[in-house]
C-alpha cells in the first residue's frame, strides 16, 4: 500500500507576506571602496569636523561652516629650574610637629574651644550635667596627641583605648569626651554666604603658611587631582 504524501506547504498564517525587496537598479551608483593605505588625512579631518548649526531663517542651501580641527599652539610657562629643599633638616619629631602646630596655633585652639563650650553651656542644667572646666594649651596638646595615637593604633571602640592602652595616665576618658565634644577651631557664627570650610579656614591658612615657609618645591612637581579644588 503506497504511503500518503505529506503536505509540506506552510500554512498561510505563518507565511511572510511582506513585499520582497526591490533589486538594485543598475543605474544606481555603487559606493566606492576606500583604500586605507591611500587615505588623505586632510579629507578625514574635514569629514569628521563638526558643523555649526545654521541660524533660524538662514538659507538651507548654503553650505555649513566647518569648525577647524587644528589644535592651538601650546605655550608652556617658564619656571626657573631649581631643586626642592626643606629649610629644616635637623629637627626632632616634636620640632617638626611644632612647625605646623606652633604655640600660637595651640593657644588659638584652646581659646576657641573654651568660647564654644561657654556658648553651649549657657543652659544651667546642661552645665551641671557636663561639669565643664576650661581647657588649657597644654591639655590641647595632649588631646591632639591622643588623636594621633588613634591613627597609629586603630580600634573599633574608642573606649578600648583606655581599657587596653592605658591612656588614662595622660587624660581620663570622661575628660577626653568633654574636650572632644566642645573642640572648635572657630567658634564665631558663620556670616551669610560663608564658604562650607569656614570653621576650619583659619587653621588651614595657618598650616598652609607654615608649609610654604618650611619647604621650597622643585620646578618638577606632580599634583594629584584630589589636591585640586573645584
TrEMBL record:
Biased amino acid composition, Polar residues: 1-10
Top-level taxonomic group: Eukaryota
Comp. bias regions, Basic and acidic residues: 32-43
Region (Disordered): 1-66
Domain named PiggyBac transposable element-derived protein: residues: 95-228
Protein name, per record: PiggyBac transposable element-derived protein domain-containing protein
Any matching Pfam family: DDE_Tnp_1_7
Protein species of origin: Endocarpon pusillum
InterPro entries: PGBD
Amino acid at each position: 500500500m503506497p504511503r500518503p504524501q505529506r503536505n509540506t506547504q506552510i500554512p498561510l498564517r505563518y507565511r511572510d507576506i511582506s513585499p520582497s525587496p526591490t533589486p538594485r537598479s543598475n543605474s544606481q551608483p555603487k559606493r566606492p571602496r576606500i583604500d586605507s593605505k591611500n587615505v588623505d588625512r586632510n579629507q578625514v579631518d574635514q569629514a569628521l569636523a563638526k558643523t555649526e548649526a545654521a541660524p533660524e531663517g538662514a538659507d538651507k542651501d548654503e553650505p555649513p561652516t566647518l569648525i577647524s580641527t587644528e589644535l592651538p599652539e601650546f605655550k608652556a610657562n617658564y619656571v626657573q629650574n631649581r631643586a626642592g629643599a626643606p629649610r629644616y633638616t635637623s629637627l626632632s619629631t616634636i620640632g617638626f610637629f611644632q612647625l605646623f602646630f606652633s604655640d600660637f596655633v595651640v593657644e588659638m585652639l584652646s581659646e576657641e574651644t573654651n568660647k564654644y563650650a561657654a556658648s553651649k553651656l549657657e543652659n544651667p542644667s546642661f552645665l551641671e550635667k557636663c561639669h565643664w572646666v576650661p581647657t588649657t594649651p597644654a591639655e590641647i596638646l595632649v588631646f591632639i596627641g591622643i588623636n594621633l595615637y588613634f591613627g597609629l593604633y586603630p580600634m573599633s571602640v574608642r573606649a578600648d583605648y583606655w581599657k587596653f592602652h592605658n591612656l588614662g595616665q595622660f587624660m581620663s576618658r570622661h575628660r577626653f569626651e568633654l574636650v572632644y565634644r566642645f573642640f572648635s577651631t572657630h567658634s564665631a557664627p558663620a556670616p551669610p554666604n560663608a564658604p562650607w570650610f569656614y570653621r576650619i579656614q583659619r587653621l588651614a591658612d595657618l598650616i598652609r603658611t607654615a608649609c610654604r615657609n618650611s619647604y621650597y618645591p622643585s620646578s618638577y612637581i606632580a599634583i594629584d587631582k584630589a589636591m585640586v579644588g573645584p
